[in-house]
Fold this protein.
Amino acid sequence: MERPPGLDPRLPGMEWLDHVGTDPGLALELFVTDWYPAGPATEPPPEPPRSVPPALRRFHRLAARHPGLFGRQNRLWPAGRFQAAERSDRLVIGGDSLGGWDWSIAWEPDATGTDPTVRHTREGDDPTAEPEPLSRFLLHFALFEAPVGPYVAWGSSTPPAELLPRLEGVLRRVPLRSYHSPSMGSEIHAAPGVIAHTPAASAASGGYFVTARHRHLLRPLAGLGITWGRFDG
């Protein structure tokens, strides 16, 4: 039986969203602590070399407690996997599980005070710079790979620009630019217990995917004008 809204356990908070622009590392930690399950107590995995940027070290410390943070289809590598790349001028930090592309940062002997550009390299193409620096890129990754809740909705609509004011009346837009494939024009919106992947307002059309901790959290989305292929609310 569905739990009435007034009896729901504590939902993930939204305090993290207020820190995206000023302290993305804090935003990451607050979001991950609320959304990602803690793993079993095990021997701590190896940390990245001390010379990697602080944002990546912080990410790995969080991933030691929340192993799902390394991702699913898109993945960031555990420290032991990318150390072998230190001999080159690039440090490969993750990529596609099928091996079609990777993410890397510049390898510097002393990068402790830097927030470098992340490069996306697809086989046969020139590297392209991600729109966000490493610290906000890692936050976007955590949001994009957040565990799917038991209740989901997915569908499509044309054009997204007409939907945006209605959508932002229900959800808050996360102020981060798309990653790894800017041509997709995707954005992330959030509410307590809800994460939504949406097309950008400039897109001619696009898909929506929403995951929620509880069924009733999807209900405000029912009347927005999206053609839902599945709607668990």
